[in-house]
Design goal:
alpha+beta, Rossmann fold, Alpha-Beta Plaits, eight-stranded antiparallel beta sheet, 31 strands, globular, EF-G-like_DII, nucleotide-binding
């Protein structure tokens, strides 16, 4: 690659900001995503997620079942330009049953934004997702949402964040009231006050400057409010006793900048976005299987598939593989090698996203997320590379299912659509598929009950295949080395099945059944996924 091309690549990579938005369900994650898209000019109108009767739906909730229920059950990818930065947002499922999709998505980003409901604080799903961010060592920015409603005391929220998640926090701004008494935000970082309703409080000015002592100069109606004196005291306390601001600690995922605001009323969101872009990292190096790393500015193209989604456009019944570019530059029509098979593939059909809207992409660089039309070549976790040197990135996490159902077509004459649907949904990672060892009975496994409901809904609506599902309940799945397997080991308490890679495993009825098996076959090693 020539010096000019290298410089252009480096310059473009440095413009990229790729991050995921994570939260517990109903914390307002999808709403803040939409407000960010508004600022980027990517959409003209944000629809309140709950407003189903009005026919307005969240832009990032594109699947029919998401529109019906007002929940996110898939990861959406959205891209836009803002302040000379190329932003890739991954809006993840909030529902805990779809955490596996979220975990894989977190492997494809360089930072995470954690949205917290200020009335509820840190919730269970937030803790789980936060742990993955910590494991990856990526920066975590916190947005305390729903300030337009009465919530918990901000000091209490900061303390909980630090204690429960074991991370230092640095408040970038501080609320002046909440709910009906909300006046604005005391911006500690920019030394100004952001008015909640500028027209009523400051002659239409959004920001009120502060002097060196952190106070408003001259007469102002804010100074007559008791909340103003209270926030000055709290701001002084934070400056004297709070954590020191450190860009190094933020980059290492040890210090979380905390922003307060209200996504629903679009208050504090633009300030958050602009400050976030100032400190969020550009694309970083990715680890390969041999403990080596590849830098984003390496000239040769490489990337990995972290998600596969069928039927994003119901009119075309297509399937898209989501690829994170890890190094170099993508050019439409380029030839790459699929690491798993060694097969050469031409990437002639590629796309970029705005939820269900797409446009053909001709080029992209490290840090970008692109979609590849998939005719069955790709699997989640696949590495693609363009150079002569073989590259294979580290495996993506896969979870051991805990709930299982037998599944069969309601209409035996529709076997073709049944098999097509089940195979595509399995390749997406939406569910896991098993077959009983001696028959062709299909068994699907999931982490949570909602996955089964979404599976049934999508089979019916996307593949015109009604299914009969019979619960076999909660089971403990453990894999066994084929060389150690004796088919007589299976029983009603430890069902012997095969996964989609033909590897044998047992579905144990409970811990007692698994212990009984281990006592009977002490030399047999049982393994699980995550």
């Amino acid at each position: 690659m020539s010096d000019n091309k290298t410089n252009t690549l480096t310059k473009e990579v440095k413009r990229r900001r790729t991050f995921a938005i994570i939260s517990h369900p109903d914390a307002g994650k999808t709403t803040i995503t939409e407000q960010l898209l508004l600022f980027g000019g990517a959409i003209r109108q944000a629809g309140t997620v709950k407003a189903k009767k009005s026919g307005k739906f969240a832009k990032s909730d594109w699947m029919e079942i998401e529109k019906q229920r007002g929940i996110s059950v898939t990861s959406s990818v959205m891209q836009f330009e803002y302040q000379n930065k190329r932003i890739n947002i991954l809006d993840t499922p909030g529902h805990e049953d779809f955490s596996e999709d979220t975990y894989r998505t977190l492997m494809a980003v360089d930072a995470a934004v954690m949205v917290v409901d200020s009335a509820k604080g840190i919730e269970e799903q937030t803790k789980k997702l936060f742990k993955v961010c910590r494991m990856r060592g990526i920066p975590i920015f916190t947005f305390m949402n729903k300030l337009d409603r009465d919530g918990r005391e901000p000091l209490e929220l900061i303390e909980e964040l630090e204690e429960v998640l074991e991370i230092d926090a640095y408040p970038m701004n501080w609320p002046i009231g909440s709910g009906k008494t909300l006046l604005g935000l005391y911006d500690l970082f920019h030394n100004r006050i952001e008015a909640f309703r500028p027209d009523e409080t400051n002659n239409g000015e959004r920001f009120i400057p502060l002097n060196e002592e952190g106070e408003i100069e001259g007469d102002h109606r804010f100074k007559k409010e008791s909340l103003y004196d209270q926030v000055l005291e709290e701001a002084l306390l934070l400056k004297e006793a709070g954590n020191a601001f450190s860009t190094e600690a933020i980059a290492a995922g040890e210090l979380s900048p905390v922003f307060f605001g209200s996504a629903l009323t679009n208050f504090g969101v633009q300030t958050f976005l602009e400050t976030f872009l100032q400190f969020a990292p550009e694309p970083s190096a990715h680890e390969m299987r041999e403990n080596d790393v590849i830098k984003p500015t390496e000239p040769e193209f490489s990337g990995f598939i972290f998600k596969i989604q069928a039927n994003m456009d119901p009119r075309h019944r297509d399937r898209i593989a989501f690829l994170r570019i890890c190094s170099g530059k993508f050019d439409r029509g380029m030839d790459v090698t699929l690491s798993r098979t060694g097969k050469k593939i031409r990437l002639s059909n590629s796309t970029q996203f705005m939820a269900e809207s797409r446009e053909t992409v001709t080029d992209a660089v490290a840090g970008d997320i692109i979609g590849l039309y998939d005719t069955g070549n790709f699997q989640i976790g696949d590495t693609l590379y363009a150079g002569k040197d073989e590259i294979e990135f580290q495996e993506l996490p896969q979870f051991t299912p805990e709930l299982f159902m037998k599944v069969e077509p309601k209409n035996v004459m529709k076997q073709k659509s049944f098999h097509k649907g089940i195979n595509q949904l399995v390749q997406e990672g939406a569910i896991q598929l098993y077959k009983s060892y001696h028959t062709e009975t299909y068994i699907i496994g999931a982490v949570g009950q909602l996955q089964f409901e979404v599976f049934e809904h999508r089979m019916r609506n996307e593949y015109n295949s009604e299914v009969i599902m019979t619960s076999i309940g909660s089971r403990i799945a453990r894999w066994i080395d084929p060389e150690q397997l004796d088919e007589n080991m299976g029983s009603s308490r430890n069902m012997l099945v095969r996964d989609r890679f033909d590897q044998p495993l047992f579905l144990f009825e409970n811990q007692f059944a698994m212990r009984w098996f281990s006592d009977k076959y002490p030399d047999v090693e049982l393994t699980s996924l995550l």
